User: What shape does this take?
Amino acid sequence: MKKPALVTRMTAMLLLLLMLLPALAACGEDSPALTPGEGANPVLSGNEIDADEYPLLGGIPTLYIDLAGNRSIGELTKEEYVGGSATLVGADAADNLVSVPLEMKGRGNYSWYDMEKKQYAIKFEEKQRVLGMGSARKWVLISNYSDKSFLRNFLTLNLAKDIGMPYTTACRYVNLVVNGEYHGLYLLTEKIEVHADRVDIDTANGDVLMEIDLPGRHYNECDYCIDIDATLPVPMHIRICEPELEDYGEEVMAAAHETATKLTTAMIPGLNRGLGKLSEIIDVQSFVDWYIVNEFVRNGDSAFWTSCYCYIEDGILHMGPVWDYDTCMGNQNNSAYFAPEGFYISEQQRAYWYYRLMRNNDFKALVKERWTELRDAGIFDDMFASIDETAAYIDESIALDNERWPGGPLRTDLRGNKSCYSAEEETQYIKKWVKTRLAWLDKQWYIKH
Assistant: This one.
């Protein structure tokens, strides 16, 4: 009769011990704090939010940022982070974040200096898994002020992800409120950076993240940039994004610069030796997919002007991740890339790699095969079908944004007399443009079975 009583007492003691373990662990000075995304619940405890104090605006996730020291958002610069805290209200309580410490600063080039509605970078004190995206500290708030539909960045990034391009930036729509003032509809995106949940390469052991850019974008100050001009019709400027000198030191940076210079300059003679030899230094699939995405949307910057990312992984050069699409799909009245018919990137000698690659019959055949594969899989049909659904999802938020920034719908600097003046008109414009573009590219690339 004593045995069951003993078992009962032991069971009770065990249960008590299990209940006390979290408190005991917290008392240990050497116990490491779990970081969100590394075993801890990425949502802070007690994540219920007062809907009256923090309403869900426009029916979509809403990000509330309070800047410290009575700093206003108008005081932010691109150079200096300002501290504060953030509360994120998700459509589901599991997505809520409550009073999370962060820093915020301005971001962008043309968009920062010439647009009324600005773009921003935010950096959490600790890594956060935001709205189902990978756990990280750094995020980007894209204003989409150049795009009255607010669709182009979202559609293109998700197209690249659906195609299967590695390290494609994830994104979510949010309404932004700073210091209690509504600031507009934004696209919250992952930052392109070397990170386990972003561009997962090993910069400590020779991998490199780069951007094909213009020297003026970083004020012509770049000790570890690569300029290819001796053999090209138009000079090509490549900036090493990571590794960074302050993190790794001069030895690692010098090695990264040497590796990057060797591979990017080897592209030129490699183009003369055929695809077989070229495939020894480049990842051909990434070059094909990057080209298809960017030629399809006819993005002006993608002719190697800026925001053309590439990376070296295990000694091989890859194209991607893709980035920056607010002026694509006929959103800039430039004769080179405004219309939905015609090639753009492969016709620009500035984008010399693709200018030559698309004159290589083997590479062109791979583009046609991949285009046909993607068309048969319905990838582009799915994208087209998502336009109305996405527009409906953000419709109420666009109305709020237009009320906050009434000059936005009236802007004509990109398309002049070809401008639309509402999100509804712009959405229909995009649908017509995409439909015509698909039909034209099918004539050039689709292989009939």
